[in-house]
Amino acid sequence: MMSYKTIAYTLLPFLCCAVLLQGCKKWEDSITVNDQALKENLMERIAAEPSTSKFAELVKKAGLDSVLTSSKVYTVFAPDNDAVSKLDAATQSDPAKLKAFVSNYITLQAWNSKTEDTAANYLQMLNGKYHLLHAALMGNATITSGNKPAKNGVYHVISSLLPLSDNIWETLTNDNTIPAVQKAFMLSLFRNVFDPTNAEQIGVDPNTGNPIYKPGTDSINTNLFWQRVYDLRDESKRYALFVMEDAAWQGATQTYYPYFATGGMDTTAQLASWEVLKDLAAEGNYTADNIPDTVLSRFNVKVPVEGAQIKRTITTSNGTIFIMGKVDISPKNKFQQWILQGEEYTSSTSNKRSNTYFRDRLTPAGIPFKDVLVYNHGTSGFSLGFRISNVHTMKYKAYVVAVNDWMTTNFTQRLSVDSATNTSMAYVTVTPNNYTEIYLGEFTISKYRSAMNIYLTAAGNTTATTNPLVCDYIRIEPSFN
């Protein structure tokens, strides 16, 4: 009869395999497992491998041998001795640089590679950088000997060093060859913004019930571009950043000065510069070889990318910086219309909810829509208010869809700017059963507004049949004529 100890030793390799398989994200039965390999940790296996002995020495020198001897599951992409011999002396002699270098080859979980594998995975390394594992390639390095098991993971031997590049933001900050003017504007956008994540609460406001934080603990210093456009430090994604040469940047921003009249040139320049900048980045793995002639910005603006205007590119760890002779985005493509849904009004002249109806309707073609109807409210000049933001210095045209499907008589309503009593725009007639847009008129904004109120205003009487207010949506479009 087999003893308990004999049974335990017989099952041990299989139990180790089961634990390893459970922790693997990408692990397959095709890996050949031998008992001795599963008794040794990754550090022991790499040190014993003749082709990776130099990398093992660097692991120990960097103080990361304890990582590869731990119980966690890792994958190591170990460069062979020929590749390691090309590592510069400055990196080898600098503890911080050496640790960052070695960490660039280690990732959590066990990852298998197969030459016929069509799947691709961006793997996060211990230093925060990402590399693409695709079939028998890790980044641009060929896996010459792969799927080597250990009791705490797997390792692959690769034929060359993996790049340890700065990300886009680090490159923008550190590379002095990048055009200076746009770069300086981007680096000027650091602000303290409210962030209670690590704030120290010292009380509660008795009037609002909101927490009171210790001054200085409830904000972080961050860049507005990271907050509002893309965080170009993010290593898990791929971006394209377009940086214009100095003269082109200055010309582009000045094109937008007339749309940001504020009475102060510094403020106008700041707003115009932001308007240009916010569309000069796109998410995607773009290079000089694959970038199309048009990309979409974070704000769905079409950004033209003329091949002849790409002066050079800078490859980073999370994308590409394109140095551009110019990027010519027309204001017509940037300044978009507002569509204000009637039922989403933000204010009213008075509380008339008992006379307000939120309706689900169908067009004659059977297309569903929602609108708001205020009827028999008894208020002369009753209005619903709406708020729009980022209103440029220019002319606008306004339209409304107002479906009068409950009366056979006409009534009137108008659009008012800034105040419900503003009479600069005339009343327009709402006829029965008209499901198309009605032109409300035009208005001009002489100074840039960060926000502005507009009002849909009923007739100046109290008669139920002549002063209703009805709205599916209001559409306001910039006019460049």
Report a brief summary of the structure.
This protein is elongated. The chain is 22% helix and 32% strand.
Which secondary structure elements does this structure contain, and how are they paired or packed?
Blueprint: H1 4-23, H2 42-48, H3 53-61, H4 65-68, E1 74-79, H5 81-84, H6 89-93, H7 95-103, E2 106-108, E3 120-124, E4 130-134, E5 137-138, E6 141-150, E7 153-158, H8 168-174, H9 180-187, E8 190-194, E9 201-204, E10 211-213, E11 219-223, H10 224-228, E12 239-244, H11 246-255, H12 265-277, E13 281-283, E14 294-296, E15 302-304, E16 310-316, E17 319-324, H13 331-334, E18 338-341, E19 347-348, E20 356-362, E21 368-374, E22 383-391, E23 395-401, E24 411-417, E25 428-430, E26 438-444, E27 449-458, E28 469-471, E29 473-479
Parallel strand pairs: 1-7, 12-17
Antiparallel strand pairs: 1-2, 3-4, 4-5, 5-6, 6-7, 8-11, 9-10, 12-13, 14-15, 16-17, 18-29, 19-22, 20-21, 21-28, 22-27, 23-26, 23-29, 24-25, 24-27
Helix pairs in contact: 2-3, 3-7, 11-12
Protein architecture, described:
- This protein is α+β, with helices and mostly antiparallel strands and 481 residues long.
- Helices cover 22% and strands 32% of the residues.
- The chain contains 13 helices and 29 strands.
- The strands form 8 sheets. It has a 7-stranded mixed sheet.
- A hairpin with a 6-residue loop joins strand 9 and strand 10 (211-213).
- Helix 11 packs across helix 12 (265-277).
- The longest helix is centred in the first third of the chain and has 20 residues, at 4-23.
- Residues 1-32 have low confidence and may be disordered.
